[in-house]
Protein 1
Amino acid sequence: MNTIDLGQLFPAISSLFQIDPTIAIARIALILIGAILAWLGVKRITEPLILVPMGLGMIFVNTAQFFLPPYPPFPSMYGNPHLAPLVGSNVSNPVMAATEQVIASTLYWLQPIYALTFLNGAIACFVFIGIGAMTDLDFLMAKPFTSFFLAVFAELGTILTFPLAVAMGFSYNDAASIAIIGGADGPMVLFTSLKLSPKLFVPITVVAYLYLSILYLFQGKLSELTIPRKMRMVRMTPTDIRRVSPREKILFAIIAGGTLSLLFPVASPLIASFFIGNVIKEAQIERLKKFADEVFLNGATFFLGLMLGILVTPDVILDPKVVKLLILGITALVLSSIGGSIGGILMYYISRGKVNALLGPAGVSCVPTTAKIAQKEAQKLDKRNYIIYHAMGPNVAGVITTAIISAIYMTIVPLM
Amino acid sequence: MGEEVTSPLSGKVLRINVKPGDAVDDSTSLLVLESMKMEIDIYPSSSGKVKEILVKEGDNVEVGQVLAVLE
């Protein structure tokens, strides 16, 4: 009988001592960060939907991971070594030779989900079907000019972050993926970065979701700082909004979805998913709607969070680009929010004081979070001011403008 | 002088915070509506006493529907 040493019995522990200590430290740090993220979500300090599964994924991938020699130094690739070859970044990954060890990994079970729903961006589309099925187009259709005007201003971050990221040394492809963080739309960031930056999509998307889950902590404050008080006090009544019939909405969804697909085929999967979800809702096909917005959306969100967490391995955090990503990500969101404020203030003047400027930052397309923030801010000053319906207009328009900008990036950047 | 508190939004009544006979003013949240997956407090425009509450928790309400009457 062969003798088995403790190291072989507990490979995840022994690998802590066998490889570069920085990786061991990074692993421990990630376990702690994962725990903090999960805890913040559990405590509802941040949005729990993505962060709890993501934090748990980070904990478990970094406790279970083991790197068998010969495997030093840590290969410069992204994601879980068992999954990364699928990204196409490192097909000659030595760990793939050790097939048995790969199969032994506790994380191997997620590989089918990764291969079937991440590589082709399907998971982002699933989320979009769900978002479409819970979005009311009424407000956007009732006030299309105001909505799109504000949404375009709230894209400031998605536009300005591109040259900033290029100046900080990122390739055009990566810069475009990072800039989309300014759209505040998680699935869109995932979809774009999978296409444009297959090697950086994990940190970009994780950074995006990290900031999005704390968006409400700073966007409200930012609106208070950038918009004069009297412009935040404008009272808007929900009954001002024209009623839009379901038939009109279905027609709009089909025409808008079709036209946008025709113009921007690269983003068509997302656009189509959104409007398919929406038509299901407006046609009142209750069972499909329930499936799309409860089962599908929640399921996709869960796997999105878990999978992202599991892709956060030491190589991701040890890459010096991550610090720049953290800076650019928050810059993109803050710029978009400020752009929204500028749009809101302009609209206040254009409408001769009839439009509450808080509608501007609601154009940052994190549906429906930013619209909620606008409502909260308005109610802070005037308890009987219900601007939420009005805020949904630019909010939903923001999804569409972000999809367009992301499509433009995905089309043009590879040609640059 | 009574006041009819109407629903500013369509949504579902999530919680009712007052009962008939309670004294309320314009900073008392009468009830919480869930609209667009968001919880929104509903306040009266004046002070008074709750005479009647016309909805119950779980009800779906439309814009303009009377939620409560104050006296």
Protein 2
Amino acid sequence: MKRNPQGINLDEGVPLKGQQDFDILHLDLFPKETEELNFWLNNGTVPLRLGGQIGTGKTTLINKVLSDAGVTPDITLHFDHESINPKQGEFYGIALAGFIAAALKFQVDLSEISLPEELNHAECSTWETLHTVLSPAKRTLAAHRLRRSVIAEFEQDTDYINGVLTDIAKAITVQKKKPLFILASGIDKFTTSGAAFISIQNLLNTLASFKTLFEVNAVHLFLKEVSGAFSRTEKLCLTACTDEQMQALIRKRMGVYSTSIHDNLIKHLADHASGNPRQALRLLVHYLEAKKQRIAGDDCFARAVLATELDYFLYADKPSDGLIDVVKKDSSLLSNMFMLPGDKETALRALYGNWILITDQPDKNGLWPVTVNRLIETIFNKPQAPDEPEKILLKHYADIHDQSAQGLSLPTSWKSHQATLDQLNLDHGLELNLAEILDVLAAALLSKDRADRVIIAYRDAELVQPARDYLFAKANTFEYQACKHLSLPGGSTESPLEALDDLLAEDTNTSIDIYSLDFGEQWTPKQLTALDSQRDAFIFSQMIWWIPEKVLKSYLSHWTQLRQLFEIYILDDELLGSLSEEDIQADITFFSDLVEEVDESAPGSMVNSLKAVLQYLKKVKHG
Amino acid sequence: MDSMDVKKRRAYLCQKVIELLFSPSTEKEQNQWVFGLVGSLAGFWRVPQNPFTRKHGKYEITADELCITCLCDIRDDGYYAIDFTHYTDDFPEPFRWSQHVDPVRYYRIPLGAFLGGQNAEKSKALATITKEDVSAVLDTLIFHPCEHMHMESCIPHTIRLGGGISNPFQYLFHLRFQFCPILTVQNNEKMRLVELVYQAVKAKQSIDIKTLMEIP
């Protein structure tokens, strides 16, 4: 991702990676944990679980510590973005590729292990060719399908593969004369009760025989340690940051432009970040989007809070009011609250979904300091009286101006947000027309240097094509961006994950800059959950996902991880209201004049898309 | 050479720079020029969003971080108008001002007629320019216009809005520079443009829009 030294740097909170990122954007938010991780790197012998809630900065911390130490893991396994299709065999394919690569790198003699010869694929009859098949250098559809076919062969014999992995690892250790260091990342994407996590257990058990750094979610730190993969591991937990750290992060991201935001507003944004760096960044993104629409200062803040709430919590499975009451009252929870068998409704859900945030390490009695996420405080035990939304708005206003709400009157300009405030119950999303959506997407779509993602929910399927044409047109305003659209129907007879995997692997003459995907209504819960665990496969792609509004609630409830990377909008039906034929025609005339080449130029592509939009508008308006 | 020669040399150079950088001729070239400029603003200002929209045939450029929008109307008869709006929470109404140039209705000294074209004196002057000459000329055209305004109550003192710029493309280009708050970018841009112009004048070559709008 392109960074702006001293300028403004916005993204969805993708991990920092590489020296440029660290030089421009890194803040030392976890000095103590950094020291502990460094100690483990140099001296540790047992595996380590590095855990933290979504958006705390786990991957950034790992990348930074390894970079500063000049250490590269012997084996790095990304379980969350090698493939969209996380079946058990896929996990073993990832592990095997990593282990073979290390063996080849260290020139280990693997002749005693006969796996390549035992497979019924001539293309991978040697260790070198097997590695090439499992980890192709170039993503092509053919390579992708061959890989899947080979994996299918050993999918039923994972015990045997576990043995192969162990043998390879031992051989590498003997050759290196040092313990093998493995980084196993992406496990944080799998909920403890999900099928994916269950299917990866045996593999994790194998990995836990070595000096392995497991990147996990906070919920994985509470797994019962009597048996299982993590029974032999140490734990290191990242907790929520301080408000001052969040202010520093916001200022860092704004660069020299940080003076353009009042200190007071930075403090309020930081406060509502609740110590979560990614949440802070999302609030900042939405704040700047609102500011661009010339909304007044403190109204921008209200809009930022609402939009971030919707991105992260719209239709998400809420924990019980009872749990939230306990946290509000006691600001703590005992460890065993997170380990209750069958507890799907309360503590673990609250933790995994960031409804509550761990603020510090536990005391010796296993009591964890926690707080309710500031963003969603107001929606629990929501008052039902008609005038209550205005009271909530008044509280926000008072907070921003460091005043007591007692006796305060709400300014007229704030009363206009009444409708917006009503949406704070998170039962429906922020409705915008297409031009408004474009305003907020402008940063996302108008630059190849960004890799942003949006979910657009629609009611009328007929609007999707012209809306998409319009967005594609605007995406090509300044530079040519290849846009590709695909329908991805789900359902028990479909394989949307494989289709998506194929799409991302497809070799075309022109690489795709923006993927547009229409999900349809039939995705099953299993398919949705599987997609959620592969969130990081999309981290470098610009995406527009179209989802029928009637299934948005169902889909989002399975996408706790995915929604961290997406902004969510609902397209209202007034397409005609937001687009003018005259403006579109003027743009066509203007950009046609700029066209130098017929094919594959930004103005050329824009003109074609705009013509499609104009045709639609004329058809609807004039018949 | 005595100081008069230096001043005359720089006068010729000034005119030459305007011809090289700020004189797209046809309507298409003018649109391409402006489009090239607005397309470079996000990178130059180091902001995430390209701050440009087209509204009813005019260009609107927004410098969000300064809370300023500029609505630009450029016509092919030399007329141009840039309407500035500074929107702020500190005052109930936005603060507005405009830069207008209307050579059709009002007399403008035709410096181009005296300094443009080909003549022996001009050729000799351009052949002997130094980088200091280029730096001085670019200062007065872009970086630190001799006649300029400071809008102290709403934008930083470091921003100098040139009041005597009659060329709309020069005016937009100087805004690109002035509205960039990053000193290192500005300094790098100065060095880049001095070198670019110096080499182009010496080699008697033109400068294309893409090269002109590169990000330092």
